[in-house]
């Protein structure tokens, strides 16, 4: 296996040659969703970016153990151990058990991942399934002197840790700078230091999700779950740890501190962070309320959406920007991606019927190298797409008789186009060839034509009835300035 992969490592702030701990194998950990509400498109961007990374590692021939957790306990509203438990709050609101909330949104998350063709991870551990491992890890941290107990809550002692290790190394900040950004402790605070964070939190009488521990009934802090689960499945030091950029300063900084305090070893060789999806320049988030769910994006059923977009158009839209750049959502950008994706797929379809000649006018080997070079350079999918569009141009030119290609070059071109489009970028054809789907497509075209006619005759009652009747059987009609479109609600 040839490995020329270069990865941008947040820890060193440089691009580095990727050398796995065990040749041919990769341990990859990605922070998964907090399952107390539907994932929004921003969360999806991060998981789709890591799906591309996982797919390319597999494509290169690595045996990858990909661990992506489910946070189903211990995530308070504030990053610094304050606020309500997110699950308990939602459970109250929806009048459900906290574990019903967890189940509902875990299933929803899996549905979304399946619809955007993201491969499932090798292990998907939950925080509630690893309480023992978290307690054991906290015990070691206390024994080694880096944590203290106050009224049943266990705090990590950041200043003590920083005397031996560098707490702010991931974001290249000194402790003094970090302290400047935090508020003073009040007389009521149990913490010794302003940056100290909870490893274990004492249960209040009303706490629903709680477990017994050496410090009494309580629940784990958010950060300890990832340290405990990553070391359990990938070892004390593993290759790649990923997540969104918003996790660097607190969650990942605390993960490094916990693991290092426990094992006296750096837990991760390469830290990778994806940039944010924004909406008019503002980060999409659950708390900001500026997000829509992938389901709303697919149906177009949201005031910010001009129409629905297919899952593969959305995936293609995400691939057109490098994972370390911000990506701003707009209807125009998505419509351009929709066209680009259709153009790419249309050219791939032509591959089976191209005529071959004695000579080739384009250099297909060079095109192949360009694709590898793009992905080897820190998974640069927009550059890869530019090369695939060059492939499409060649296919169309050969099809139009303007260029020629030999049989062996055509076989190579076919391999490049399908390997990188389907296996690496995880795109798939959305046009079904089944007879019934084709028939449905035809019937819907007839119905939309009839509806157009009745609207032209100003018989709005009839056109509304058609729309409402279709809605009852889960077919959504949307009127756009370019005419009506239809989609099936899954
Ligand atoms: P959460 O469910 O809030 O714990 O987030 C799950 C993942 O989504 C984390 O890796 C976050 O960094 C990531 N994430 C959250 N918001 C965005 C966004 N607007 N763009 C990209 N990734 C995001
Ligand atoms: Zn995490």
Keywords summarizing the entry:
alpha/beta, binds zinc ion, Rossmann fold, binds adenosine monophosphate, 490 residues
Explain the overall architecture.
The chain is an alpha/beta fold and 490 residues long. It folds into 3 domains: 6-274, Rossmann fold; 278-424, Orthogonal Bundle (Isoleucyl-tRNA Synthetase, Domain 1); 435-488, no CATH class. The chain has helices at 41-59, 86-94, 98-115, 131-143, 158-164, 175-180, 222-234, 248-263, 294-299, 311-319, 331-350, 364-376, 381-399, 407-424, 435-456, 460-472, and strands at residues 6-9, 14-17, 25-30, 63-68, 147-150, 153-156, 197-202, 218-220, 238-244, 268-274, 277-279, 282-283, 327-329, 475-480, 483-488. It has a 4-stranded parallel sheet with strand order 4-3-9-10, with helices on both faces. A hairpin with a 2-residue loop joins β14 (475-480) and β15. α7 packs across α8, α10 (311-319) packs across α11 (331-350) and α11 packs across α13 (381-399). The chain is globular, with a radius of gyration of 26 Å. 39% of the residues are buried. Zinc ion binds at residues 31, 226, 251.
- Name the hetero compounds present: adenosine monophosphate, zinc ion
Oligomer kind: single chain
Dominant shape = globular
Q: Compute the number of structural domains.
A: 3
Average pLDDT, all residues: 93
Distance between the first and last residues' Cα: 41 Å
Number of helices: 16
Q: Strands of the largest sheet, in order across it?
A: 4-3-9-10
């Amino acid at each position: 296996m040839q490995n020329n992969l270069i990865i941008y490592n947040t820890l060193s702030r440089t691009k580095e040659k990727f050398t796995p701990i065990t040749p041919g194998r990769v341990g990859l950990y990605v922070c998964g969703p907090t399952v107390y509400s539907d994932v929004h498109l921003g969360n999806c961007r991060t998981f789709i970016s890591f799906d591309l990374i996982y797919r390319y590692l597999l494509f290169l021939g690595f045996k990858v153990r990909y661990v992506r957790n489910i946070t189903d306990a211990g995530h308070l509203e504030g990053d610094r151990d304050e606020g309500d438990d997110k699950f308990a709050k939602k459970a109250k609101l929806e009048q459900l058990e906290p574990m019903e909330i967890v189940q509902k949104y875990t299933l929803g998350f899996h549905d979304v991942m399946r619809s955007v063709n993201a491969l499932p991870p090798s292990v998907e551990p939950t925080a509630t399934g690893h309480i023992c491992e978290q307690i054991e890890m906290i015990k070691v941290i206390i024994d080694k002197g880096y944590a203290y107990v106050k009224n049943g809550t266990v705090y990590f002692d950041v200043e003590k840790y920083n005397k031996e290790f560098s707490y702010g190394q991931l974001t290249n900040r000194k402790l003094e700078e970090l302290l400047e950004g935090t508020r003073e402790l009040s007389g009521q605070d149990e913490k010794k230091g302003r940056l100290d964070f909870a490893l274990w939190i004492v249960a209040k009488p009303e706490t629903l999700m709680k477990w017994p521990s050496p410090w009494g009934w309580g629940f784990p802090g958010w950060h300890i779950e990832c340290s405990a689960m990553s070391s359990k499945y990938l070892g004390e030091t593993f290759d790649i740890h990923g997540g969104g950029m918003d996790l660097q300063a607190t969650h990942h900084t605390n993960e490094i501190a916990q693991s290092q305090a426990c094992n006296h070893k750096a837990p991760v060789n390469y830290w990778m962070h994806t940039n944010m999806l924004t909406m008019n320049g503002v980060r999409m988030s659950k708390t900001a309320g500026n997000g829509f769910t992938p389901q709303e994006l697919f149906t177009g059923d949201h005031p910010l959406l001009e129409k629905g977009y297919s899952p593969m158009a959305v995936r293609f839209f995400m691939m057109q920007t490098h994972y370390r750049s911000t990506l701003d959502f707009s209807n125009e950008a998505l419509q351009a991606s929709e066209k680009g994706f259709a153009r790419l797929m249309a050219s791939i379809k032509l591959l089976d019927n191209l005529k071959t000649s004695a000579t080739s006018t384009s250099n297909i080997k060079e095109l192949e190298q360009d694709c590898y070079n793009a992905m080897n350079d820190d998974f640069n999918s927009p550059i890869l797409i530019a090369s695939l569009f060059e492939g499409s141009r060649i296919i169309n030119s050969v099809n139009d008789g303007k260029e020629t290609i030999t049989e062996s070059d055509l076989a190579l071109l076919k391999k490049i186009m399908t390997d990188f489009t389907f296996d690496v970028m995880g795109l798939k054809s959305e046009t079904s060839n089944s007879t019934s789907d084709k028939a449905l497509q035809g019937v819907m075209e007839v119905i939309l034509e009839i509806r157009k006619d009745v609207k032209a005759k100003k018989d709005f009652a009839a056109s509304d009835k058609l729309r409402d009747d279709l809605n009852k059987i889960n077919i959504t009609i949307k009127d756009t300035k370019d005419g009506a479109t239809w989609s099936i609600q899954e």
